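Weekly modeling sync, notes
Attendees: S.R. (lead), two postdocs, one rotation student

Agenda item 3: backlog of single-chain predictions. S.R. asked that every request posted to the team notebook include the full sequence so nobody has to chase files. The rotation student volunteered to paste the first one in as an example of the format we agreed on. Action items at the bottom.

Example entry:
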Amino acid sequence: MVKKRMILCMVILFLSQSGYHALHAQQGHLFIGREDNLFVIRHQSAILDQAKTFRVYLPENKKPDQLFPVLYVLHGAGCTSSAWPEQTRIDEMAIDYEMMLIFPDGETSWYLDHPQQTAMRYESYLVQELLPLIEKTFPARRDRSGRAIMGASMGGYGAMMFAAKYPEQFCSVSSFFGILTITGEIEAIAALLGPYQNDRDFLKKNSPFELASHYINQELAILFDCGSEDQTSALIAGRTFHERLNELAIPHIWQENPGGHTAEYLNSHLKEHLDFHWKNFTLITDP
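Predicted structure, as returned to the notebook:
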């Protein structure tokens, strides 16, 4: 049974595996809980005007004042911040890497700022609120070479979208069966934003395929893959995105592997993605 302890704090000193970390909440109150080897953080979002929950994997602190690179991990549609830990072995595998993992809650927002609904401003929330909160509160690196982002399905789309729109923030990006073009009639997008034809300009401004030129000369490491039995639009979108990056001569890794749009696929290829980001963290150093 998962045990949860929730306490209200401004500054809390707690035991993280075998090392101590001080958390300093810079604004407002944080509710800190624990689920196995993850911390569960609840805070009041000023941008979304609601309470939000995210989860954090914090590595063992082996030396004083150690700062860790951070990998943001985005969930798919219909899920919450608990999806990755519950459906994959990511928190178990994380012990092999000295990097923090952040699991935000993006609802089924496609991580976009909805043009009409002010309560659905998840792009702004992640970039303007959550990212600074992580770097003020946790022993996180604050440089581009210490930040990466990945996701699955809707989260894979979100990761690629954030990397294209904010290339100065991330040094690597990866996607599992992401919907990398949203300029077509996708039911989930239509449900959120209305029919595609009514939001054509908005979708083009937020589609990784349409934003691909933003990756040019960014020294951004890119990995994306999809299962060859995937029955969603992700496989065709991945192939199309791969062709687009080739046209633009943008270095990247594209893989089609056996499997479908499933948690089993994620678990089968999760280590490849974690290795990809960890290798990039260790190779890149900002001048």
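Discussion: group reviewed the output briefly. The domain at 7-283 is CATH 3.40.50.1820 (Rossmann fold).
Action items: rotation student to repeat for the remaining queue; S.R. to check formatting next week.
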